[in-house]
Amino acid sequence: VARLLGDETLAREIVAGFLTDMPVQIERLKRHVAQGDAVAAGAQAHSIKGAAANVGGMALSAAAFELEQAGRAGRVDAVAALVPELDRQFDRLKEALETS
Amino acid sequence: MKILIAEDDLTSRRILTAMLTKWGFNPVVTADGNAAWAELQQTDAPKLVLLDRNMPGLDGLELCRRLRKVESSDPPYVVLLTGLGAKDDIVQGLDAGANDYVTKPYDSEELQARIRVGQRMLELQARLLEARNALEHLAMYDSLTGLFNRRAILERLAQEISRAKREDGNLSVGMLDIDHFKNVNDACGHQVGDEVLIAFTERIRAQLRAYDCVGRYGGEEFLAITASPRGRVEGDLYERLRANVAGPIPTRAGPIFITVSIGVARSTGASTVDELLAAADVALYQAKAAGRNRVVFADRSDT
Predict the structure, then answer these.
(1) CB of B244 within 8 A of CB of B203?
(2) DSSP for residue B141
(3) Full-model pTM
(4) CA B128 to CA B117: how far, in whole Å?
(5) Dist CA B165 CA B186 (whole Å)
(6) Band (B232; pLDDT cuts 50, 70, 90)
(7) Where would I find the H helices in chain A?
(8) What mean pLDDT is reported for chain B?
(9) How many CB atoms lie within 10 A of CB B85?
(10) Around B120, how many Cα atoms within 13 Å sit in the side-chain half-sphere?
C-alpha cells in the first residue's frame, strides 16, 4: 500500500481501517454460511478478495477467491469447508501487517 | 476535476480516495450504487465515474445500464472496477455500458493512465457538443440579420399554429416586404443594401413583444408571427411596425429613406401553414398595388 500511495502515514491509516473492517466482513460471510446462503457468501467473499488484494494480502485474496467460486456455484458445503482457511489467512496477514 | 467513486469496500474506497486526492482530483465518494446514482443526478455532477462491479443495492452493472438509458448528449465516462481475472465481469460490464475497466489490486500508473484516457474522451465529447451547438445555430439563424432563417421561422410557424389550436389563442402572420429595395442595391451597392437590412431588422425588433417572433423569409422579405393569449388581439402592432420603419436610415451612402408594405393573415382554427402564408401573400400584394407603405389584413376588406 505504501508503494501504491508513496505515503507512509496514509498507508498505515488504510491498513488500520482494513484490519477493523475485515473481521466485520468475515463475520458477515459466516452468517451467510450459517444460513445456508451460498450465493450471498460468495458475494461477500468477492468483496474480501478485492480488499485483501488492495493491501497486498494475496494469500487471503486467493482463499477468498476459492470461496467466491464455491459460493457462485451454490455449494454450501464447499463454502463452509473453506472458511477455516480464510480465517487462518486473515490472522497471518494481520500479524504481518501489524509487525511491519 | 471531480471524479465519482462508487465502492462498497472500505479499504478500496480509502485507497482510491487517497490516490485521486494525491493526483489533484476532487473525489466524490459513495459506498453503494444508489448513492452514486443520486450523486449523478445533481447539477454539475462528476463526469468521470469509478464504479465497483459488485455492490449491495444497485450494483455497478445495473447502474451502468441505468446511465445508458438516459438520453444525453454529454454522458459520464465510466471505468468499472473489477476483481483480477474476472473476465465474465469485464465482458458484462462493457456490454452494460462501461467505457473501460481496471482490475484490483489497483496499479497506480495504470489507473492514472486510464483516467487520462477518460479525460481525453470527455474533452472530445465537450468539443463535439460545442461544434454541434455552433452548427445548430448556423442552421437556424440568418447570418446578416441574426434573425431566424426561412427554415427556422417556418418550423416555428407550424409549432405556433398547433399551439394556438391547443390553447385556442389568436395567431397572425405578417409578410413584410421593404418597398423598392432593389433600387437601394442598384443605386448604392449591396453593402449599403445590407446596412439597410440590418437597420430595418433593429426597427422591427424594437416593436415586437417577447412572445412574437420574426424571421428573414427571403432577400428583403420578412415573416412575423404574432401570437396573443386567448381573448386578446395584437391590436395595431403591424401598423406600429410600418410606422416605425419609415424614416431615414443612416448608411455609408448617406441617409436612405425606406418604407415597408405588410400583408397580415389571421389564423382560424383550421388554418395550415400554406393557407396562412398564401393569405398573407395576397394581402401583401394588395398593399403593394394600393400604393405601398401600408398594412392590409387578409380577412378585412376595409383596410
Answers:
(1) yes
(2) B
(3) 0.71
(4) 16
(5) 44
(6) low
(7) 2-5, 8-34, 38-54, 58-72, 76-99
(8) 90
(9) 10
(10) 7
Q: Which of A4, A13, A20, A90 to mutate to test the interface with B (most CBs of B within 10 A)?
A: A4
The H or E element spanning position B111 is helix B108-140
Check residue B57 and give its pLDDT.
82
A58-72 vs A38-54: helix crossing angle, rounded to 10: 160
Burial of B43 (0-12, 13-18, 19+ CB in 10 A): exposed
Residue of A nearest to B109 (CA): A4
Asked if B298 contacts B291 with a C-beta cutoff of 8 angstroms, the reply is: no
User: Which residues 3-62 of A are in CB contact (within 8 Å) with B?
Assistant: 4-7, 10, 13-14, 17-18, 21-22, 43, 46-47, 49-51, 53-56
Tell me B99's DSSP state. S
Q: What is the DSSP letter of A35?
A: T
Compute how many other C-beta atoms are within 10 angstroms of the C-beta atom of residue B155. Answer: 15
The three cell numbers locating residue B230:
386567448
Cell 500511495 locates to A5
Question: Contact at 8 Å (CB) between B228 and B170?
Answer: yes
Write out the DSSP string of B67-85: HHHS--SSPPEEEEEE-TT
Question: Do β-strands B213-216 and B221-228 pair in parallel, antiparallel, or remain unpaired?
Answer: antiparallel
Instruction: Read off the pLDDT band of B233 (50, 70, 90).
Output: low
In chain B, residues with a C-beta closer than 8 Å to the C-beta of A6 are 22
Cell numbers representing residue B287 in the block:
398593399
Task: State residue A82's pLDDT score.
Answer: 94
Local structure of residue B148 (DSSP, 8 states): B
